[in-house]
Amino acid sequence: MTLPKSIMMLVLAVAVMFCAPVRAESKREYQQRFQMMLDYAVRSNEYIRRHLGDRGLCAYAADMAAKNADAAEQMTPPPLYADLHPHFLLVLENIERAFHYASKGKLDRYRHHQKIVRKELRILEAMAEKERLQLYLWDRDW
């Protein structure tokens, strides 16, 4: 490696080490995506629960839930949401897993992941209430 390339590599390595991660979205964008993704996940979860016999629908819902969870993993939470984000991810990931197992007819595994979803939603809702954050786009009286 030539000297100019060595210096460039060293500068690049130092820059990567000392740069803070780039925030992909503003606080408002994060909040809007958070609410929309969570609301979609909870509503689709309720719908699938009533249609477990339709494996094709469950497979479609699993694909959509996987995209939702993957997108949430790429989000950078602002400080106000930092403690909620891991529980948010667990809700989305376990809904996806539940749908996957429902599409395979493995209802024991479906129920296992649903139990995790309910637990994480209770935690998320309690934390949001403490911070006075609105989790859902609309009231959850549906």
Description of the molecule:
This protein has 142 residues and is an all-alpha fold. The protein has five helices and no strands. The chain has helices spanning 3-18, 27-49, 55-73, 85-103, 107-131.
Task: Give Rg in angstroms.
Answer: 20 Å
Q: How many DSSP-defined strands?
A: 0
Quaternary organisation of the protein chains: single chain
Main β-sheet, in a few words?
Answer: none
Mean pLDDT: 86
- Approximately what portion of the residues adopt beta-strand conformation? under 5%
Our measurement of the CA-to-CA distance between the termini, rounded to an integer number of angstroms, reads 64 Å
Order of helices and strands: HHHHH
Principal-axis shape equals elongated
* Structural domains: how many: 1
SSE diagram, text form:
Layout: H1 3-18, H2 27-49, H3 55-73, H4 85-103, H5 107-131
Helix pairs in contact: 2-3, 2-4, 3-4, 4-5
